[in-house]
Write a structure and sequence with these properties.
This protein is α+β, with helices and mostly antiparallel strands and 144 residues long. The chain has helices at residues 14-24, 37-44, 95-104, and strands at 6-10, 28-35, 51-60, 63-72, 87-91, 108-109, 114-116, 119-125, 131-137.
Length: 144
């Protein structure tokens, strides 16, 4: 294996999800497309339907990561992966500022920022209750 290519999240409302990931977390949209019914049958073994895919690119100092949002046209298929997904973790510049911003937008924030070793972290949930970990890497001077 070379790297983690992407993380995929099933969402119930693509517009709310895009607002959360683009506007509140600042990810950059790279493409939005729809998989055809035949693609769904062949790739996922699901009944014919469409899946709207939205890809975000997150540039890092070592390349990039992709976050993929899945929006199924048939609501019952949204639970396809059951509880296999736990959380996504994003490295951010300022955990305290993001914490305040998310609270101001009534986002379900699960914890206050807390120093854990060399990082300051907190957890929140997006509009579909997917758990998101926000991590600020601290240098020795910032630990307080």
């Amino acid at each position: 294996m070379k790297n983690l290519r992407h993380s995929a999240i099933i969402v119930s409302d693509i517009n709310k999800a895009r607002y959360f990931y683009e506007h509140l977390l600042g990810l950059h949209l790279i493409v939005q497309k729809t998989l055809s019914s035949q693609d769904i049958v062949e790739l996922l073994g699901l009944e014919k339907q469409e899946i709207e895919l939205t890809y975000y690119k997150l540039a890092t100092d070592k390349g990039y990561s992709l976050v993929e949002l899945y929006h199924f046209s048939k609501i019952e298929q949204m639970l396809y992966n059951g509880i296999n997904f736990n959380h996504l973790a994003f490295t951010v510049d300022n955990v305290d500022k993001l914490y305040k911003d998310l609270k101001m937008h009534d986002i379900n924030v699960l914890s206050k920022p807390k120093i854990m070793g060399t990082c300051k972290i907190f957890f929140a949930r997006d509009f579909d209750r997917n758990m998101i970990e926000l991590v600020e890497e601290l240098d020795a001077k910032k630990k307080k």
